[in-house]
Amino acid sequence: MQRNRERRSRQVQITQRQTGRNLQVKEGRSSTIQVLCLFTQNSLSLSIHHDISLNMDTVTIAPNKVAKNLGVVIDDRLSFSDHIASVARSCRYALYNIRKLRPYLTQYATQLLVQAMVISCLDYCNALLVGLPACAIKPLQMVQNAAARLVFNQPKRSHVTPLFINMHWLPVAARIQHKALTLAYKVTSGYLNVILNAYIPSRMLRSSNANRLAVPSPKTKRGHSKLFSVVVPQLWNNLPVPTRATSLSTFKKLVKTLLFRDCLTKPNSTNHLLT
Predict the structure, then answer these.
(1) How many domains does the chain have?
(2) Polar residues: which segments have biased composition (predicted)?
(3) How far apart are CA 157 and CA 152, in angstroms?
(4) Alpha-carbon distance 32 to 62, whole Å?
């Protein structure tokens, strides 16, 4: 009895401490606290053991492979494979329910319903996926392809590029770049400009007034990094100079037009995911 009181008192203290930090503790029978263990690139080649636990009084702290924060599933390797699988699964279920109502809906009503229930889910926190390879985000692209075919009542094997052009939809990879560039615009013009550093050449160059961003050298062995501060400056510097010196609303329109032209309307543009 006394032990149960001490355990309850300890849980109350942890709850009060987390509440003071604007964090929420999930109440339950177990007195186990799950901690997400993140590993660096150098430690990925080592064997990772998740069966380690720490005992503090009556509370057990156990590592976990995944954790969910604000609807985003974060894994210990930051590959976001679990998050992509979760988003694709929920979107497919939404498409399954919309397909039942499709005979009773017009094309415009179906497009609005798909954009509200599926496309918005694909766009939620998609800036976290910047820098991932095409094979990693392919499940999300397949969901968007199925959504476009559902809007136009097309068969499963039909090509979706004309459908995307008709609805003015960007592919998933382009939507991720659009969100990342929009965040970069807000960061460079706001109080979070310490995340991205402006490019300052050692001597006067023609690009000194081009509003470029400094690209830090990645520290991974393969010369590639998924960090926001590494990938986004490369995308930003590839934009035309007049596009960077506009208002936010104009910037978003110009970037979407550029991505739309590069991904869908260019004669030599090829996207193997849009099939």
Answers:
(1) 2
(2) 11-21
(3) 13
(4) 7
* 161, 59: one domain: no
58 and 86 in a single domain? The answer is no
Say if residue 47 is in the same domain as residue 103. no
Domain assignment present for residue 3? The answer is: no
Chain centroid to CA 127: how far? 4
Can you give the pTM of this predicted structure? Answer: 0.75
Q: What is the per-residue pLDDT for 46?
A: 44
Rounded to an integer, what distance in angstroms lies between the CA atom of residue 128 and that of residue 137? 12
- Residue 211 sits at φ, ψ, to 5 deg, of 55, 50
> Count of residues for the chain?
275
- Parent domain of 215: 78-275
Q: What is the pLDDT of residues 103-141, one digit of tens each?
A: 999 999 999 999 999 999 999 999 889 888 899 999 999
Q: Are residues 173 and 125 in the same domain?
A: yes
Q: What span, in angstroms and rounded, lies between the C-alpha atoms of 176 and 127?
A: 5
